[in-house]
Automatic annotation (TrEMBL):
Residues 235-246 have a biased composition (Basic and acidic residues). Pfam families: GNVR (PF13807), Wzz (PF02706). This is YveK family protein. It comes from Cytobacillus mangrovibacter. It is found in: Cell membrane. It comes from the Bacteria. Residues 224-246 are annotated as: Disordered. The keyword Cell membrane applies. It is a multi-pass membrane protein. InterPro entries: Bact_polysacc_biosynth/exp, GNVR, LPS_length_determ_N. Belongs to the CpsC/CapA family.
């Protein structure tokens, strides 16, 4: 037996369980806000920039072939910066009580397209530690790259600094709350339709027609007893115009 659901029935289902939908939505938003503000640790970001370029003393014009070579070297530098050869020295200089793997996870290296500028970004719960790791990583890499690849084409373009009032990059409470609102709303709507699908009780003549595929010829209404009239003698009740001894 094929069943079809009209748009009207969908809206009726949502309206019938509107409080369930709203409750799940607000609970999800409140939980997300509490977790974002009270549970999650704020993480700060700091970055330094390196310039990959050979020093020029005699030639006033750039050599395109050397620029292309420097751009290709950046991909190699991205790997070397996060290698144990560099990070072990950074760990030693800063006397960090963390593993190389954990330090590697805090550092992100990247460059803009067709750019000779290399950015080292560090995320840490302490903004000052993030800046120290970024600056130390840049200086160690600049010093050690001459021994690793026998090249001297890296210079520090900008050091990482900490602002007076640093703002954490994560968590983002407002974004988390917005996502929780959407997820809670979707969960409430889905749960409403699931409860409606599992509810197989017969509530109206339309349910009987849909289940039995037979027309309803008539319905018996419920006889309700009205309130006792103040003029009616005690012990008697009026039901639809008739007086019945109680």
């Amino acid at each position: 037996m094929e069943e079809t659901i009209s748009l009207k029935e969908l809206f009726q289902t949502l309206r019938k369980r509107i409080w369930l939908i709203l409750s799940l939505t607000f609970v999800a938003a409140i939980a997300s806000g509490l977790i974002s503000y009270l549970v999650l640790t704020p993480v700060y970001s700091s970055s330094t920039q390196l310039l990959v370029n050979q020093a020029k003393s005699e030639q006033p014009m750039y050599n395109p072939s050397e620029i292309q070579t420097n751009l290709q070297l950046i991909n190699t530098y991205n790997v070397i910066i996060k290698s144990p050869a560099i990070l072990e020295l950074v760990q030693k200089e800063l006397d960090l009580d963390t593993s190389i793997e954990a330090l590697n996870g805090k550092i992100t290296v990247g460059s803009q397209k067709d750019s000779q500028v290399l950015a080292i970004t560090v995320q840490d719960p302490d903004p000052y530690m993030a800046a120290d790791i970024a600056n130390t990583t840049a200086s160690v890499f600049q010093r050690e790259i001459t021994n690793i690849m026998s090249v001297d084409n890296v210079s520090i373009l900008a050091k990482a600094v900490v602002k007076e009032d640093p703002t954490p990059v994560k968590p983002q409470p407002l974004l988390n709350i917005a996502i929780a609102l959407v997820v809670g709303l979707m969960a409430g709507v889905g749960l409403s339709f699931l409860l409606e699908y599992l509810d197989n009780t017969v509530k109206s003549e339309q349910d009987i027609e849909r289940l039995l595929e037979l027309p309803v010829l008539g319905a018996i209404t419920t006889m309700e007893t009205s309130k006792k009239s103040p003029r009616m003698p005690k012990g008697k009740t009026e039901v639809r115009g008739e007086t019945i001894e109680s």
